[in-house]
Amino acid sequence: PLVPHSEPRNMTTFTSLIQTPALSYQEIMMPTSCAMMIGFASGATTSGKLAGYQFMVENLHRLPRTRANWFFFQKTKNYKVILGGFKGGLKTGGKLGAWTAGFCTLKELFTLLPAIERRKSIAGALAGLNMALGASLFYQLRPTLSPRRLLLGTLMGLCAGLAEDMKAHLEEEDPPL
């Protein structure tokens, strides 16, 4: 239900009586951006090495014979490594960032429920379970592997939530002198 509310300029606006708490921007964006950076670094390293190996394998039959040709061969290889590393870094960083954003968003959504409002450990376990279920369905894992993945996702989410609960508990108490 909307209730009229007057502002200082005698303008009437309507505000909602139901207050819905907003999702924490920092609790979602910080882990997501860190995961994207770590994923980019990991993907760039791995994909750059693979691009270098692929270039060598593709051009092994026509190795250069002069010093100038070796220079251009190495220069071309370096360009391929940089381009392959950049592409792989973006791909891996995007994937890891998306999965992390999904987990953090689910965890924050679960903390909006009144029953588990202040228990991030339960919210983390539920978010981990849901993300593991989503990953099992998305990647079409064999049914024999799914229970193990669900347990692992639940335990990792529980650990992340327990760490946040411990941090909140330590911030509430007065430090000893």
UniProtKB/TrEMBL annotation:
Protein source organism: Puccinia striiformis
Top-level taxonomic group: Eukaryota
Name of the molecule in the record: Mitochondrial import inner membrane translocase subunit TIM22
